[in-house]
Amino acid sequence: MEITLENANDSDLGLVCVGLNEFVSGMSGIGGMRSRGLGNCQLIELIGYESDLKDTDQLRKYLTGRTLDEKMTKVNDINDFLKKHIGALFTDVSGG
Q: Which entry of 24, 45, 52, 53 is 20 to 30 Å from 68 by CA?
């Protein structure tokens, strides 16, 4: 599975992280409109990459790179990444 966000704002990224976090934790059901559903799903070995193309250095890296690792920055700890962006949703709502 691959998810690509383009021109995403902080809220968009946070909401995608909420959904991914459910799959990482194994709490996501598969199927709908069934009496018992089709089962649960868990994402393992989730890998994330990020790039801010408004930054000139990152844009240059993206345009000159040939592979995903050359184009973007790999997220070191995906769990921390998810928590950070989910937490930002609540910071935005509370105003602080």
A: 24
Residue 71 burial by CB count (10 A; 0-12/13-18/19+): exposed, middle or buried? Answer: middle
Show the tokens assigned to 16.
């995608």
Reply yes or no on whether the pLDDT at 35 is more than 70: no
The pTM assigned to this predicted structure is 0.77
Side-chain-side CA neighbours of 25 within 13 Å: the count stands at 11
Half-sphere exposure of 72 (CA within 13 A, CB side): 11
Q: Could you tell me which residues are beta bridge partners of residue 49?
A: 74
Which residues have CB under 8 Å from 31's CB, separation 6+? 37, 38, 39
Distance of alpha carbon 90 from its chain centroid, rounded?
A: 17
Domain ranges for the chain, please list them.
Answer: 10-94
**Closest CA relative to residue 50, chosen from 61, 64, 37:** 61
